[in-house]
Amino acid sequence: MVLKTIIKATDRWTHRDGEFGFMFEPYTGEECVSLDCEMTSLDPQSAELVSIGAVKVRGSKVITSDRLDIKLQRPESLTGDSIKIHRIRGIDLHGGEVLGDALQDLLYFIGNRPILGYYINFDIAVLNRHIRPRFGFSLPNKVIELSHLYQHKIQQTNPELQPDLHFEKIAGKLGVPIMGRHTAVGDAITTGLMYVRLLQGKIPS
Description:
Elements: H1 2-15, E1 31-39, E2 49-58, E3 61-71, H2 80-86, H3 99-110, E4 115-117, H4 120-135, E5 143-145, H5 146-157, H6 167-174, H7 184-200
Helix pairs in contact: 5-7
């Protein structure tokens, strides 16, 4: 934790006057960005990005008109096993964006807003593996983990309960429709809807 704080402070100092200095400024608005990535594996050290989805959440609304839906050029590590999960075939990535351009678009879209996601630290670890060599810093944004927020809300009224934290189970308990499961933008929108429901609605027992 101390090392991460030192690295973040060093990145802020190094980039304060650069192109992405805005990312290190304190955020004072009411938006966050729900983010999801589809990848070739579950190993953060080797997983390659296949698609990136992000949508802005403003107060009690998921702004589906203000979203990012990027398919990338086919990575060499795309295999049949990963296709079974995200259902994105090599042919579907024909004409996909170059990774560097996609990451730059993502940085501008997120800005210095908090990043919301489901097991989002995995996505961020993979993104940072590609962002730091290209841009010289890691994502400095505050992170909101949906599963932790859900567990906290449930245990406020049921301290002994260990809720099922599977994505589909959380959505079902909250009465949120799943929008295109295992597509990056679909999962990002669904996560945003679950987050709004947790903040605004009555928490199920």
